[in-house]
Amino acid sequence: MPTYRRVQNIAHDIGIDGFLFISVTSAEVRLTATDGTEAQLHATFEVDAPTEAEADAIFESSLLTTEAGAGRLHVAEGDGSWGMGSAIDRLVRAIPYLVGVTADLEAVEGTAPAGCRLELRAVSGDVQASGFRGAQRCQSVSGDLRLADAGGSMDIDSVSGDISLRAVAPVSLKVNNVSGDLSAEAPIYDSLRIQSVSGDVSVDGELSDATPHSVDTVSGDFRLASASGMTVAVRGMSSDIHSALPHRFEGSADRRRLIVGDGAASVAFNSMSGDLAVTRSRQQAQPPAPARQPAAPASETDRIAVLGALERGEIDVDEAMRRLGSDA
Q1: How much is the pTM?
Q2: Contact 283, 187 (CB under 8 A)
Q3: Adjacent-strand bridge partners of 185
Q4: pLDDT at residue 93 greater than cutoff 70
Q5: Residue ranges of domains in the chain
Q6: Which of the chain's ends, N or C, has fewer CB atoms near its CB within 10 Å?
Q7: Which burial class, exposed, middle or buried, applies to 166 when counting CB atoms under 10 A from its CB (0-12, 13-18, 19+)?
Q8: What is the DSSP track for 300-326?
Q9: Three-class SS state of 204
């Protein structure tokens, strides 16, 4: 049966700080920030149908629902409701209602203002967003989340997908995760609130000392890479603590405190069996390579030896210039 490709184009001016909501089932979501005020989306469908006319008909019946208003755009597959029950309902409704005829939403991609408020929901598709600085909320059941060139406030809920955050501006990060791993890098965290059941947590960046931070896991490990002075309060009977930075310990048993530097930033790590590892941030500037010293001028005896080797063909001109140094 032939496969037809159809694209639904959606565009709406939401302003530089408007609201964009996208809710899909299994499709991928890929968004890039722009300096403009308009959200432009392209939803790609793959339609299996006997004829092009039938493909057009099922495409029209499968279009994403859109609601547009002043400063906002709402785009959803189905009614846009959320929760495990509605997620399962959308998956069931995605089963072809006519044998041999299907319309699968493959991806929703496009651009939106960098400062907009962004809410993305997906059941099993991966989500990618790059360049956004406004408040961002992402919810996923099993797809991976990848946020790049990011900044601002981030609220993430994930059941089993991995989460990758690469920020270039300060962030306030709140994460609720069940089994996927979290890897986050940012220049500074204004606040950090992470809850994970079994996934490992890796955080790289400075920690603000203006507010306390917390990481809770059941069995997941916590790796903290930072140049900040910090006090990490660890509660966990079987949690091991390792630090590659100069430190000291206070307390004992399940109420230990790891203190690095001036201890200014406050971090609480609560875990049943997860381990803590503190290391130096990968984002710290590497020391510059020593400047290459110019070659010392060759003595007269050396010059004669080099020129003789050149005349005999034992070395080429470039090597002769190198040996002669600044006097060449």
Answers
A1: 0.79
A2: yes
A3: 166, 204
A4: no
A5: 1-139, 144-286, 298-328
A6: N
A7: middle
A8: HHHHHHHHHHHHTTSS-HHHHHHHHGG
A9: strand
